[in-house]
Amino acid sequence: MFRVTERSNSFFSIVLILTGVMAILPTSWLAWTRDLSDIVRLPITPVAHAGNRLAGWLRPVDAVDGMNESDLRERMIILEDERDRFKRLYHAQQLRLQELSVQLSLLQGLPDRMMQGPRPPLILPTDVTARDPGDVVSAVEVEVTPQIDERVIVGDVAIWRHEYLVGRVASRSSFRVTILPLAHPDTGPFQVAVLIPGQEEAGLAPPRMLLNPLGDGSFAGEVDHRHGTLPGSQVVLADSEWPPWAQALGVGVIESVEQIDEAPLRDLVIVRPRIQLHQLPEIILLASDEAPMTLTGELNP
Amino acid sequence: MRWLVFMIAALLATALDLGLASAMTLRTLDFLTPSFAAVLVAYMALLGRADHVLWGAWVVGVLADLSPGSAEGAEAIYIIGPHALGYVFGASVILTIRSMVFRHRVLTLSACTFACVLSTGLATVLTGIIRFWLPFTGGAVVPFGLGELGHSFGDALYSGLLAIPAGWVLFQTMPLWRFDYGVGRRTA
Hints:
Chain A is an alpha+beta fold and about 300 residues long.
């Protein structure tokens, strides 16, 4: 057996007991740990950030083979971004059209109103500075640039490659911005639309369902069996509780569809994200553009 | 043991776990990820003085519990305990058996790293279960369950593998540490 001095042993025992007590303290009593973590992160974050960049370089999430020419790669990235953006806009317009067609009869009886479209969001690319690569639903922290410090608020969304929704800002301070993955149980249920390839081309409205995070990185939802939902179909956000610019962003693809025995008219659908937040070395934050306006309603330069 | 060297190594190991470890994650195997911090604790536990080892393991554990990627839940709460207690438990096990093993062998370090990660997994699951059942803790913030244990076992195996190259590097730095562990069993 090992030996330790009597005095050191008793003091260490007390520290261990205190640690054990701290581990089971109520969540509401542990807010001070955030401050402690802020202090710990001071020496750790620069090295962790560099490590994340190196990891992203060593093992890119979406490697593009055969694009060694830097200018060609840049052009490809721009084209892919544009393609993803237009695809998202197309899906968003489809959802909007569906909503408007449902509301049309109600709106016909009302006085004309000026439709004010949402302002485009601020696009803020940022590096991930800390993540737990082994935990699918762990929160990540991103680099706090001055622009992010000024503009990002709790509830803003995090996306990847202009197409996939990966998380939402859960908390922010001058030291850190914490992003909770979409698949985290605390993100809560949200509404999505299922883009079934055949129905989409036939002009049929995409079926909607409420998705619940399961805690293992996937989601579950129930959809009408008559829609004929198939594995592999894309699922996009269609929830008015989320910012307008997050609508129609990809949530994932349907992994499995099973008819529910207790309710044969319903299908249990398991959705898995194409990419998990904790895999990404960098993300893009979409923040609301709260720039001051003039009295005439024009944006200040 | 030189505490300055230990602190630098502890911060570096924690930072590597948060950054570079993601390059080694097995994405197709439930995202198994090795732990540099566990390798450090095992290394220290094999060679350091008992009381220094326990304090060191606790410090590395607290650093891991407070590290930026460990926030739990929507409120980004840090639970101090799972790693702190787990590493201390793992270090205690190593301290108990170290007189019976070849301390300077990389394979010994590998096996001890396995024990460290596994004990941390057990401590995490235990904390999760206690937090789940106690009415005042605010629910299951720390994940637990058989899946979590299985994941820890995988992480432990992977960390044991990582300990072979990482341990070799650590053994090269031995003169810097100035371990004063007395008479140990050494290889020829």
